[in-house]
């Protein structure tokens, strides 16, 4: 009876189990790629959180019928930043093909 060995990630510990050298290399590549994508996603989420805070504050002020004073061109700049972020995500993940 053959026992299957699989590589695992548990509690921030990656275990690459004894397999052939090619399988070990593929597992290492898979884990490193997943970690890199996770970091990239974290950066995008942080950037998006900043933009969402700005928009949410404006939306709340509008709901309360408060006067909103915005610097000339700020809304266009914020809109451009959001489109730029969307473009970077689409290019990096190929989401524009779906």
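^ Assign residues to that structure.
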């Amino acid at each position: 009876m053959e026992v299957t060995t699989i590589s695992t990630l548990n509690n921030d510990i990656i275990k690459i189990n004894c397999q052939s050298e090619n399988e070990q290399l593929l597992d290492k590549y898979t884990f490193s790629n997943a970690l890199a994508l996770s970091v990239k996603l974290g950066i995008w989420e942080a950037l998006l959180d900043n933009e969402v805070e700005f928009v949410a504050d404006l939306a709340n002020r509008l709901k309360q019928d408060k006067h909103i004073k915005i610097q000339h061109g700020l809304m266009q700049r914020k809109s451009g930043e959001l489109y730029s972020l969307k473009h970077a995500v689409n290019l990096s993940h190929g989401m524009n093909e779906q």
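DSSP finds two helices and two strands in the chain.
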